Amino acid sequence: MAPRVAARSPAPQIDSCAERHASDPAALSDVKTRLLGGRSIEAVAQVFRLLSDPTRVRLVDALSHGERCVCDLAALVGTSESAISHQLRLLRTARLVRVRRTGRMAFYALDDHHVIGLLHDTRKHVEEGA
Known about the structure:
- The protein is mainly alpha-helical.
- It has helices spanning 25-34, 38-50, 54-63, 70-77, 81-93, 113-129, and strands at 68-69, 97-102, 105-110.
- The chain is 55% helix and 11% strand.
- It has a three-stranded antiparallel beta sheet with strand order 1-3-2.
- The protein is elongated.
- The protein has six helices and three strands.
């Protein structure tokens, strides 16, 4: 005789409207016109992809305390200079960091205050839940 399998009840739909209601089409249309467009969505997603790497987050954190050369960043992050250079190249391409050259030395800094704000706000969000 085959073992009996308990019947499963369907999972509740948590993320759906419990009932049909009258949405305001004009309000939805207004919001829709203010949503990010295709290029902006891709650019924002790319920034988040770049910041999904712990080494790059450490670099951004280190640079939030001021301009640094590659060897100082390698010491702060605990990674080789060549690995740091590679990560900085990715961050520079996305305009998250900028470089200033003095002779053969290269000094990196966060590109603007928005990057510091992004790090600061995300850190606050994460620490709120802890």
